[in-house]
């Protein structure tokens, strides 16, 4: 706690959920964090998290909503649109030449929570901040791979866009309002 919050981050305010626990066996709680904050010079705010009025906001609940494909529900609990970040990499090259819809294929870390396999309307945010409406496919391509062998892919088809995105680090999907 001291090494990260005080020494590295120079924290002045730490905001956690009122049921926050930390440390070995989750023995640390908000009250202990407050005492440590007083000792090391930062304030601790424990807030109630009720989000959508049904369940408490939690990473478990948000991951469950994403797994169900409910990106709007996840966004409500997050307080912002869900995003997936990754590098644009070369795919199999079928989208443009064979199908007429070139896509930006994102290399996404394995530990990133992806929404359920589906095609989403969203935005593709380029590193310069510009937004492009996009059809974003999350899933496997059963047409081109044997069942059970296809990796999960995130591909974005940018509407009204022509350009080279290889190597870029965009953020998507975020549901269109």
Largest sheet: 5 strands, antiparallel
Secondary-structure-based class equals alpha+beta
Distance between the termini: 39 Å
Mean pLDDT: 81
Provide the gyration radius in Å: 20 Å
Number of helices: 4
Low-confidence runs: none
Order of helices and strands: HEEEHEHHEEEEEEE
What is the beta-strand fraction?
Answer: 25-35%
Overall 3D geometry?
Answer: elongated
Helical content (DSSP H or I, runs of 4+): 10-25%
Can you describe this structure?
With 177 residues, this protein is of the alpha+beta class. The chain is 20% helix and 27% strand. It has 4 helices and 11 strands; from the N terminus they run αβββαβααβββββββ. It has helices spanning 2-8, 30-40, 59-67, 71-78, and strands at 13-17, 21-22, 28-29, 43-47, 84-85, 87-89, 104-107, 118-125, 131-139, 153-158, 171-172. The chain has a 5-stranded antiparallel beta sheet, with no helix packed on it. The chain has a two-stranded parallel sheet with strand order 1-4. Strand 8 (118-125) and strand 9 (131-139) form a beta hairpin.
Features:
single chain; 177 residues; alpha+beta; two-stranded parallel sheet; elongated
Helices and strands in order:
Elements: H1 2-8, E1 13-17, E2 21-22, E3 28-29, H2 30-40, E4 43-47, H3 59-67, H4 71-78, E5 84-85, E6 87-89, E7 104-107, E8 118-125, E9 131-139, E10 153-158, E11 171-172
Parallel strand pairs: 1-4
Antiparallel strand pairs: 2-3, 5-11, 6-7, 7-10, 8-9, 9-10
Helix pairs in contact: 3-4
């Amino acid at each position: 706690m001291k090494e990260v919050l005080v020494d590295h981050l120079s924290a002045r305010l730490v905001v956690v959920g009122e049921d926050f626990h930390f440390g070995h066996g989750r023995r640390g709680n908000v009250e202990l964090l407050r005492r440590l904050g007083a000792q090391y010079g930062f304030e601790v705010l424990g807030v109630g998290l009720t989000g959508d009025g049904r369940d408490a906001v939690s990473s478990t609940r948000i991951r469950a909503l994403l797994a169900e494909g409910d990106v709007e529900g996840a966004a409500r609990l997050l307080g912002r649109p869900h995003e997936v970040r990754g590098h644009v990499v070369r795919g199999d090259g079928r989208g443009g030449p064979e199908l007429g819809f070139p896509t930006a294929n994102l290399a996404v870390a394995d530990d990133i929570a992806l929404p359920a396999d589906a095609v989403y309307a969203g935005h593709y945010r380029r590193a310069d901040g510009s937004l492009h409406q996009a059809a974003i496919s999350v899933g496997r391509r059963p047409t081109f791979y044997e069942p059970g062998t296809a990796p999960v892919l995130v591909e974005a088809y940018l509407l009204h866009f022509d350009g080279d995105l290889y190597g870029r680090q965009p953020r998507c999907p975020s549901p269109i309002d």
